[in-house]
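Dear Dr. V.,

Thank you for agreeing to look over these. As mentioned in my earlier message, I'm a first-year student in the group and I'm still getting used to reading structure tokens, so any feedback on how I've presented them would be very welcome. I ran two proteins. I've put each sequence directly above its structure. The first is here:
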Amino acid sequence: MVSKLYGGHASDNAALLKIRMQKAWNDVEESYQQSCDKYADAYAGYQNKLLEYRQAVGQ
């Protein structure tokens, strides 16, 4: 009965749900990777600025 309401079979709905779940997880992992990349870039920039400062003050 439920499958008739949504115009598909339960197995089709299960497959679509699985695809949606996998895509959502892939998006989570991608977001995490982007966050790590931004952090690494920011930390590298910090280290460069710190080095410039130390050179400027003769350390």
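The second protein is here, in the same arrangement:
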Amino acid sequence: MTLKKELGAREQIAAVVAGAIILSGIIYWGYQFVVMLEFLEMAYG
């Protein structure tokens, strides 16, 4: 049984898309966290 070390074209595209989705989620939730802290600071000083 041989293991294929290279990814096919579809697998490369899937890996890039998955990485982009994960990175977008991290950026989005990081931004939401900062906005929430600003709202709390406005509400409670």
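From my reading of the second output: The chain has a mean pLDDT of 91. The first helix runs from residue 9 to 44. Does that match how you would interpret it?

Kind regards,
E.
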